[in-house]
Amino acid sequence: PAPLAEHGPAQIIAMCNQKGGVGKTTSTINLGAALAEYGRRVLLVDFDPQGALSVGLGVNPMELDVTVYNLLMERGLTADEVLLKTAIPGMDLLPSNIDLSAAEVQLVSEVARESALARALKPLLPDYDYVIIDCQPSLGLLTVNALTAAHSVIVPLECEFFALRGVALLTETIEKVCERLNPDLRLDGILATMYDSRTVHSREVLARVVEAFGEHVFHTVIGRTVRFPETTVAGEPITTYATNSVGAAAYRQLAREVLDRCRPVE
Ligand code: ADP
Ligand code: MG
Question: Atom 4 (ligand 1): residue with closest C-alpha?
Answer without folding.
Answer: 21
